Amino acid sequence: MRVAIQVSELRYATEDGVLVLDGVSFGLPGDGFVFVVGPPSSGKTLLLELILREKFPSGGQILVLGRNMARLSPTRARALRRRIGYMPEEPVILEGRTVRGNLEFKLRALGISSREAREHLARALELAGLKGEEGRRASSLGALGQRRLLLALALCPEPAILLADDPFRGLEPGEQDELVALLQGVHEVGVAVLATCRDGSIPARHGFPPKDRAPLLKYTVHLQPERAR
Question: CA-CA distances (angstroms) from residue 57 to 4, 82, 95, 100, 110?
Answer without folding.
Answer: 18, 21, 35, 37, 28
